TrEMBL record:
This protein's name: FecR domain-containing protein
Lineage: Bacteria, Pseudomonadati, Pseudomonadota, Gammaproteobacteria, Methylococcales
InterPro entries: FecR (IPR006860), FecR_N (IPR032623), Ferrdict_sens_TM (IPR012373)
Gene3D superfamilies per UniProt: 2.60.120.1440
UniProt domain FecR protein: residue ranges: 112-207
Domain FecR N-terminal: 16-55
Domain of life (superkingdom): Bacteria
Transmembrane residue ranges: none
Amino acid sequence: MQHTHHSEIDPRILAQAAEWFALFRSGQVQPNETAQWQAWLVAHPDHQAAWARVEFHIDRFKSLPPKAALAALTAPDLQRRRAIKHLALLGGVGLANWQFSRAGYWQAWTADYHVAQGQIQTITLVDGSTVVLDSGSALNVAFSADLRRLQLVSGTIYIETAKDNSGWQRPFVVDTQEGRVRALGTRFSVSQQTDHSEITVFADSVEIQPAHPNSAKQRLHAGQNTRFAADRIEPIKPSKLDKPAWSQGVIVADDIPLSEFLLQLNRYRQGYVTCAPEIADMRIIGSFPLKHTDKILASLATNLPVKLSYPLPFWVKVLPR
């Protein structure tokens, strides 16, 4: 992840991070608020950069009033030590009157189908097609006389298309923020990321059409994966999976860094997991059941030279032992 320089983070985003910190410090967090925080965290790199600043100061924050957090978060680098030293005096910088937009969350929560953090849901559409929604995903369905259309609002879906049982032979498409994916009798997955869509085909093929009118279409075949933005399609990469691992209730770690593994794990927990930079590149191999994320973390502490720390409720940090 590319971190935004401190001075470039919008003060409103820093205030959001401080408000979330104050909420967690209060010890009165509701499950839906944890899900909203996780959605906020992954919605934009600047959100993650702002929360990284919270993490940097967490030990100092623990002994201070929650509303004093914003003073340290917004202080320029050269003034940081002074701001921390005088946080108690700056506690008047409150957040009670500050509200941030939840338009994106509202769009997800009002979708035809939305899945809570840590849950996976399988639905059967009226045409007989099957859609599996990954944790934190949201989907709208709009079938008409001439089109079978899904709109992926957020997250990831895995689709097994069926022949149109209406007798009209309507095309089956998935729309994302970056364009349209047309199924050509296939099994495939679509993921909506912050600035791109990702497609993996497991059987037959799909046709990708980026949203920009001058962008060319491209076919993607079984065993292939790619990403696309509104104006381009990235080079195709091979994929050796028969189905997405998450759709079968597991995370498969094929010699990946600990930091990447924890990013995947975060999507299936009510809370947040991170690791110290010095162990971020530690390699992880194995298959882990998603229903027992606490057991996954415990197994890391048992089998690797790491330990678990809990800086805040719902926040687990993996540290070197």
